Hints:
By secondary structure, the chain is of the alpha+beta class. It is built from 20 helices and 13 strands. Helix 16 crosses helix 17. The longest helix is centred in the N-terminal third of the chain and has 31 residues, at 125-155.
Amino acid sequence: MSFRRIETRHVAGALVLLIGLSNVLSVMRPGLFHRVEFLTDVLPGSVVSASAAVSVAVGLLLVGLALNLSRGKRRAWRITVALLALELLLQATQARHVIVGVTAVLLALLVGHRGRFIGRSEPIGRSRALAVGGLMLVSSTLLGWIAVTALDQHLGTGLSPKDRLLATVRGFVGIESPVTSGPSRDADAVYYLLVALAAMTVLVTGALVLRAPRLLEPKSDDDDRDVRALVAAYGGGDSLAYFALRDDRAVVWGAGRRSCISYRMVNATLLAAGDPLGPQAAWPEAITAFVNHARANSAVPAVVAATEAGARAWTKHAGLVALEFGDEAVLCASTFTLEGRAMRNTRQAVTRAQRAGCTVRIARLRDLPPDELEHLADLADLWRGAAIERGFSMALGRLDLVRDPDAVIVTADLDGTTQALLSLVPWGGSDRLSLDVMRRASHAVSGVNELMISELMARAADLGVCEVSLNFAVFREAIERSQRIGAGPVARTWGAVLRGASRLTQVDTLYRFNAKFCPQWRSRYLLYPRAGGLARVTWAYLRAESFLPRPFHRPAPAPVEASAGAAAGTTMSRRVLARRAQARRGTTRRRLDPVAPQSISGTRNPR
């Protein structure tokens, strides 16, 4: 099913926004009551005034509903239909014939296409909205009454406490009172303060009522088992397949559980990473289920770091737009060598580390003693320091002997002290590896990372490994194109922007580090909906990778008892964590806060 069907929601949302703004501006605009003065011959003046006041309140509500209506939320649809029906009556008292026609058409459109608005909101939204909305209403009324009282005393209008309260309430909907109708700056300030307080109360309350669920159901033990089986059987085509086993991802299954897609909910965006899991013939079933799941949760479907095959499937079966946004570096054990002019810099870095006395150890996780594994996890956390935890699409974020026995740890030692480490997860069984974490001590000798990678490739045959996926280079081709002789001004400017962004994201640094090994470059794609979806998906991806930390967000502390459900960034409930900890009590497992080397975040210091 194509995602283009949902464009009807966007049209409805835009029309609702226009009608809401029209209501607000029409009452605040000077001359409104002169324009409807003839109605006082038919209706009492108090009715016209009250109609204008209610019209502003309805307008504010419609403005707050517009975005959620465009996302297809069922609760927003119900409230909007009720408000539009009320709006038709209000507009009749204000002689706004054009708006009456538009409102009637929109109301018919919403009722006729009610099947498009099926998205659910957060179940606890109503109760929290009532509490917060009531508190904000009381606070706004109190602040507004204080402001009106101060202005009344300053101007000497002599209003009674009841009249001041009435002036405050009228001010909430933009109607002037004896104290705010004057030409002074103080009167204007109080007028706009009252309108702002009302708008803030309405919009915040509406946002809580219509907020999308923050956390969908995490993977169950059965889900984890079945996903692991698909990764083992069909994960060879995607080096990111193993990261679907992250504990902070949910999963959507296709028909018969033959295929699935792992994802995270970020800012009303269902963000998947990599290709669907399972045989390619079953991918359309999982993609269709994923798009339907996005619609049911008022979210936008998006994919990051898909392969070319995955991108073709998403564009064909979901109608998403593909954007090539980077390449991963893959080393082949049969062709890797340090010889040749192209490998000169890498060879020199390896030689420096060897002359300093560095030695490299390589082992599967299952072959490490538990105490050594615990020590390495402590070192990795220590070397990360105060850096923001990153990793979503290309990081696993744990060291677990039970769940990930085929993972590989590479360490570089100097005089018996560990200087740096690499953590790699299986890719397509155990014959290929995908880089998870790259860390080193600040005092480590130069070239230690190059030494670990070159030794890993030299001993790949002993491990039964044929390929190793390294870091991910964002917009690699753009960087290379900007450095070519004869590059145009657009290419050079874009390259300069990417190199400037490297200060935050290490875009250029990772590209240069990867290029030192002369890898095979394999394209990765970002997939997003049409109609402005790129900006929204990019924002969600940056949030998922922790480049845009949530304001006022306090990370959840790691559970005291080690459990298989406590990966970095997890948002699982304590009940789920406790259940999994009890089921695996006595196993060796350690959380490893990730700085994803394959994602935009990269390593802290790849050199």
